[in-house]
Amino acid sequence: MSSHQVLLNKLEKRALNFSIWGNVFMVVIGVGFAIVSYSDAIMLDGLYSFIHLLIALLTLRVSKLVMKPSNDEYPFGYWMYEPMINLAKGLMIITLLALALFNAFASLYSGGKQVILDMAIFYAFLATLGCFISAWLVGHWGKQAHSPLALVDAKNWWVDGYISAVMLVVFIAAFVLEDSDWADWVPYFDPLMVIALVLLIVIVPLSIMRDAWNEIVGKHPGEDIEDKIRDLIDSVVSSAVHKGYRLRLVMTGRFLLVHIYFKIQADTPLDSIEALDEVREQLYQAFRKHYPFVAMDVVFTQQEKWEKISTGEQSPMALENKHD
Q1: Which of 142, 182, 235, 275 is buried most deeply by CB count within 10 Å?
Q2: How far apart are CA 282 and CA 276, in angstroms?
Q3: Could you give the CA distance from residue 306 to residue 64 in angstroms, rounded to a whole number?
């Protein structure tokens, strides 16, 4: 592991540790204030933070695991654990939201719920401030570390901050209406707010699950990344020494997997192992300037069949039958 990657790992660990302790704080005050204020909305917020805490502990373990080298048991390393943990995070949040939604409708049916509003307002203010500060810090360190795990945590902190801000506004509105002609509606504010929060929150775990699933199944990472990689390849390898190349890209967590298959000219100046390795070195250094965690495989061939076999477009048996 290079010194640059060691520095990135330290930044990631700082972000994840901060997120863990931040979630511990949010769980304690969330559950505590929910019990004191009798608010299901606050309880939902506290349990949401509790799920973040559980996942953050797993995330810290996974962040160390994915940096381990491959071995006989895992010949391609542990990269897949990163999107898997994000997929699990999304599933757990979806489960919590489903339970909260059911409980909110049950509360509406039974006539709403009376909440101690001054306690609820104090909690919402404290939670909003804490979540936004945590979101900025974790996101800042996550960007510096190029860590998908920390960036997902930062996204969750932002969402939790917006949730707390909405709760603050609603609780203040309920407090103002408590002594008005609309006082009979105040008990319905809390369950209605839970329903609204579920609808707001559900977008985040769904997007996390979508992105994680795309990485697990090896979906193309996007045209913007491919265009960037092609520009880097063209800046390093002159078109005069090859007849074109095939590019395959996969993004798995923080790792970008780059496979390049060059079809080279018969009279190419790349006529030695040293020359080919020099091209690989230049490509690798060019990629790492933009993608610190990159795994690269470069193949040089003069026969199209090896490109097709390598990419799985045609089996060796089919090619042999074609030549027969």
Answers
A1: 142
A2: 10
A3: 36
Average pLDDT, the chain: 82
What DSSP state is assigned to residue 69? P
Buried residues in 120-147 as b, exposed as e (16+ CB within 10 A): bbebbbbbbebbbebbebbbebbeebbb
Query: Which neighbouring-strand residues pair with 88?
Result: none
Residue 131 is predicted with a pLDDT of 92
- Under a CB-based contact definition with an 8 Å cutoff, are residues 280 and 296 in contact? yes
| Distance from C-alpha of 45 to C-alpha of 49, rounded to nearest angstrom | 6
Alpha-carbon distance 268 to 262, whole Å?
12
Could you tell me the pLDDT band of residue 313, with boundaries at 50, 70 and 90? low
For 219, residues 6+ apart whose C-beta sits below 8 A from its C-beta are 250
Question: What is the three-class DSSP state of 233?
Answer: helix
Average pLDDT over residues 100-104: 85
Q: What letter would DSSP give residue 238? A: -
Here the tokens at position 197 are: 């929060």
Who contacts 255 (Cβ-Cβ below 8 Å, separation ≥6)?
66, 79, 293, 294, 295
- Cα separation, 196 vs 123, in Å, equals 19
Task: Give the tokens for residue 33.
Answer: 């204030």
The residue count of the chain comes to 324
Q: Structure tokens of 244?
A: 């074109």
Q: What are phi and psi of 299, to 5 degrees?
A: -115, 135
Residue 185 host element (H or E): none
CA 95 to chain centre: 19
Query: 3-state class of 246 per DSSP?
Result: strand
DSSP H/E element including 301: strand 294-301
Mean pLDDT, rounded, for 206-226: 86
Q: How far apart, in whole angstroms, are the C-alpha atoms of residue 61 and residue 54?
A: 11
What is the arithmetic mean of pLDDT over 186-201? 84
